[in-house]
Design goal:
Layout (H helix, E strand, L loop, with lengths): L3 H53 L6 H5 L15 H11 L3 H8 L3 H9 L6 H10 L4 H11 L1
C-alpha cells in the first residue's frame, strides 16, 4: 500500500506544474512575438544603415568631367550608357542583335560587344539607342519595315 504522504506530494507537484504552465503560456507567446519583432527591427536597421551609407558616399565623377569636355563625348549630350539597360531594352522589344543594330546604325556584332561591356557606342549610336527607349514593339516594327 502506497504511502499517503507520497501520493499527496505527487498530486500537489502535478497540480503546481499544471498551474505554472497555464500562467506562463501567455508569457511564452508574448516572448515569441517580441523575438519576432526584434528580428524585424534588426533587419530594418541594417537596411537603413545601408541606405545611409549609399546616400553619404560622394558622387562618382566621370573621366570627362575631370579632364574637361574633349570633343563630342557622351557627357556633352547628357546621355548615359548601361550595357544591362540596353540589353534589357532589346529583349523587351523582342529584337535580335542584328535588327537592333540596323535600327541604331551598327552591326549585330557591335550590339553584342556593347552588351558584353567590351566596347561603348559612339555618340551617334548612343543617341539612336536613347531614341529607342520609349518606343513599343509596333513602332519598332514599323521602323524596321521602313528601313527595308
Amino acid at each position: 500500500m502506497p504511502n499517503i504522504a507520497a501520493v499527496l506530494k505527487d498530486e500537489i507537484t502535478r497540480l503546481a506544474r499544471k498551474e505554472l504552465r497555464a500562467k506562463t503560456g501567455g508569457l511564452r507567446n508574448a516572448l515569441a512575438g517580441c523575438r519576432a519583432d526584434v528580428s524585424a527591427l534588426k533587419k530594418r536597421v541594417t537596411e537603413l544603415e545601408k541606405q545611409l551609407a549609399r546616400a553619404s558616399r560622394p558622387a562618382k565623377q566621370s573621366k570627362q568631367a575631370l579632364v574637361g569636355d574633349v570633343g563630342a563625348g557622351d557627357e556633352s549630350q547628357g546621355l548615359r550608357f548601361r550595357a544591362a539597360g540596353m540589353a534589357s531594352n532589346r529583349k523587351r522589344l523582342g529584337l535580335p542583335a542584328s535588327d537592333f543594330g540596323r535600327l541604331v546604325g551598327a552591326t549585330g556584332a557591335s550590339v553584342y560587344a556593347w552588351e558584353a561591356g567590351k566596347s561603348k557606342p559612339r555618340a551617334q549610336h548612343l543617341a539612336a539607342i536613347a531614341g529607342l527607349r520609349g518606343l513599343g514593339k509596333r513602332e519598332v516594327a514599323e521602323r524596321l519595315a521602313s528601313l527595308g
